[in-house]
C-alpha cells in the first residue's frame, strides 16, 4: 500500500484521464449525438482476451501530477470526522478533448475515427465523412468501439462510497464459509470500486480474517486496462490479486472454442459483482442482466449479490434503472434499490442490489 495509512484510514492513489462527470446535460447530449449519428456499418468487436499487468509499462511516479481528493466516510463515523477512505485521483492522463489523449492512445483513437478496425501496417486509413466525426477526444463514448472507460464516471464514486460505508465486503466475507471470495467489476474503467473492495479486505486481514479475496476487472477496451486500470491497481498494491479482462461481455462468457480452452468468465463463479454507469441503453442493460445471472454463484448459502450503480434515467439514449430491474425480473433475478443519491446537481442516481431468484 502506498501512503502512510493508520488503523482508521487508508489512501487510494488513482490515475485519471478526466475528473468525474457531473452527469449534466452536456454528457447526455454527447451520448445522444453519438447514437443518433451512428452509421449502419457493421462494427467488428475487439477480441476478448486477458491482459497481463507484467506487460504494461511501469509508470514514472516521481513526476509531479495534479491531484483531486474525494473523502469517503462510514455513515456512523462521519460526524466524528474519522477518515475511513481517502481517494486521491491523480490526473496522469489529460482530460478528454486534449490532443495528448489521442497521442497517448493512438490505436484506440484510430478505431473510434474509422469504420474499420485498426488499419493494417503500412496501410492508409480512409474513413467515411460520417465515421470521421467520432474520435476519442470529442466523445464520451463511441458505441461498439469505445465505452467511456478513460473517464471517471460519478456512479463509480457512488458505488465505492456505498461499498465502504456499508462495509459490504467485510459483512459478506464474515458470513462466507469459503476460503476464497471472488469479486467481479464489469465495465470497470478506472477500477475504483473493485480496488476499494480489495483494500477493505486488506484491513480485515489485519484483524485476523483468513480469506483469500480476488478481483476480476473487465472493460470493453484493452487500452483502458493498460492506461488506467492496471496502473491504479499497481499503485495501490493490489495488482497481484487482480485479473484483467478486455472484450465484449458476450465474448467473455462464451462457451470455450478451439482458440480459448475455457470461458474467461465462468458460470457461478463470483460472490460479488460491481458495475456502474453500464445500463445507459436498453441493449447493454439486457446484456448486463444476463451476464450477472451467468456469473453470480447460485448456491443460496453463498448470499451472492451484484451492486449496480446508475442514473435513474439516461435521457436521450433509452436506459433507466426501472427498465434494468424489469429486465432482471425476466432473467430470474430479483432487485431492490438500496441507495438513492439526490444531490441537486445532476440526475437522481440509484444503487440496485441484485440477487438470484430463489
Average pLDDT reading: 74
Distance between the termini: 40 Å
The tally of beta strands, per DSSP, is: 11
Biggest sheet descriptor: 8 strands, mixed
Strand residue percentage: 15-25%
| Fraction of residues in H or I helices | 25-40%
Helix count, per DSSP? 10
State the low-pLDDT regions, or none: 1-10, 18-41, 59-69, 74-84, 87-98, 115-133
Please identify the structural class as seen in this structure.
Answer: alpha/beta
Q: How does the overall form come out from the CA principal axes? A: globular
The run of helices and strands is EHEEEHHHHEHEHEHEHEHEE
Strand order of the largest sheet: 2-7-6-5-8-9-11-10
Radius of gyration: 20 Å
Write structural notes for this entry:
The protein has helices spanning about 25-35, 100-105, 105-115, 155-165, 170-175, 190-205, 220-235, 250, 280-295, 320-330; strands at about 10-15, 50, 65-70, 85-90, 180-185, 210-220, 240-245, 270-275, 305-310, 335-340, 350-355. By secondary structure, the chain is an alpha/beta fold. Strands 2-7-6-5-8-9-11-10 form an eight-stranded mixed sheet, with helices on both faces. Helix 9 links the parallel strand 8 (about 270-275) and strand 9. Helix 4 (about 155-165) packs parallel to helix 6 (about 190-205) and helix 9 (about 280-295) crosses helix 10 (about 320-330). The relative contact order is 0.15.
Features:
three-stranded mixed β-sheet, disordered N terminus, eight-stranded mixed β-sheet, alpha/beta, 29% helix, 358 residues
Please describe the topology of this protein:
Blueprint: E1 11-15, H1 25-36, E2 49-51, E3 67-72, E4 85-90, H2 99-104, H3 106-113, H4 154-165, H5 168-175, E5 180-186, H6 192-206, E6 212-219, H7 222-235, E7 242-246, H8 249-252, E8 272-276, H9 282-295, E9 305-311, H10 321-330, E10 333-341, E11 349-356
Parallel strand pairs: 1-4, 5-6, 5-8, 6-7, 8-9
Antiparallel strand pairs: 2-7, 3-4, 9-11, 10-11
Helix pairs in contact: 4-6, 5-6, 9-10
Amino acid at each position: 500500500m502506498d501512503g502512510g495509512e493508520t488503523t482508521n484510514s487508508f489512501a487510494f492513489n488513482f490515475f485519471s484521464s478526466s475528473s468525474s462527470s457531473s452527469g449534466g446535460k452536456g454528457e447526455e447530449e454527447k451520448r445522444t449525438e453519438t447514437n443518433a449519428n451512428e452509421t449502419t456499418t457493421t462494427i467488428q468487436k475487439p477480441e476478448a482476451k486477458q491482459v497481463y499487468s507484467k506487460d504494461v509499462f511501469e509508470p514514472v511516479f516521481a513526476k509531479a501530477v495534479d491531484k483531486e481528493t474525494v473523502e469517503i466516510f462510514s455513515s456512523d463515523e462521519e460526524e466524528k470526522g474519522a477518515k475511513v477512505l481517502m481517494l486521491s485521483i491523480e490526473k496522469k492522463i489529460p482530460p478528454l478533448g486534449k490532443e495528448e489523449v489521442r497521442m497517448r492512445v493512438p490505436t484506440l483513437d484510430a478505431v473510434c475515427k474509422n469504420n474499420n478496425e485498426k488499419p493494417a501496417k503500412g496501410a492508409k486509413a480512409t474513413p467515411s465523412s460520417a465515421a470521421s466525426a467520432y474520435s476519442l477526444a470529442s466523445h464520451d463514448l463511441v458505441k461498439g468501439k469505445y465505452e467511456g472507460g478513460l473517464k471517471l464516471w460519478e456512479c463509480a464514486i457512488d458505488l465505492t462510497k456505498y461499498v465502504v460505508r456499508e462495509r459490504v465486503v467485510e459483512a459478506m466475507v464474515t458470513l462466507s464459509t469459503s476460503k476464497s471470495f471472488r469479486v467481479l467489476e464489469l465495465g470497470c474503467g478506472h477500477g475504483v470500486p473493485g480496488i476499494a473492495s480489495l483494500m477493505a479486505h486488506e484491513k480485515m486481514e489485519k484483524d485476523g480474517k483468513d480469506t483469500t479475496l480476488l478481483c476480476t476487472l473487465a472493460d470493453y477496451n484493452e487500452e483502458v486496462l493498460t492506461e488506467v486500470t492496471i496502473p491504479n491497481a499497481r499503485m495501490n498494491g493490489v495488482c497481484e490479486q487482480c485479473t484483467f479482462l478486455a472484450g465484449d461481455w458476450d465474448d467473455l462468457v462464451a462457451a470455450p472454442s478451439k482458440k480459448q480452452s475455457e470461458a474467461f468468465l465462468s458460470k457461478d463463479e463470483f460472490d460479488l459483482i460491481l458495475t456502474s454507469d453500464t445500463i445507459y441503453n436498453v441493449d447493454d442493460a439486457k446484456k448486463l442482466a444476463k451476464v450477472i445471472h451467468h456469473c453470480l454463484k447460485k448456491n443460496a448459502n453463498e448470499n451472492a449479490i451484484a451492486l449496480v450503480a446508475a442514473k435513474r434515467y439516461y435521457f436521450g439514449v433509452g436506459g433507466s434503472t426501472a427498465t434494468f430491474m424489469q429486465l432482471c425480473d425476466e432473467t430470474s433475478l430479483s432487485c431492490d434499490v438500496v441507495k438513492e443519491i439526490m444531490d441537486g446537481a445532476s440526475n437522481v442516481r440509484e444503487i440496485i442490489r441484485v440477487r438470484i431468484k430463489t
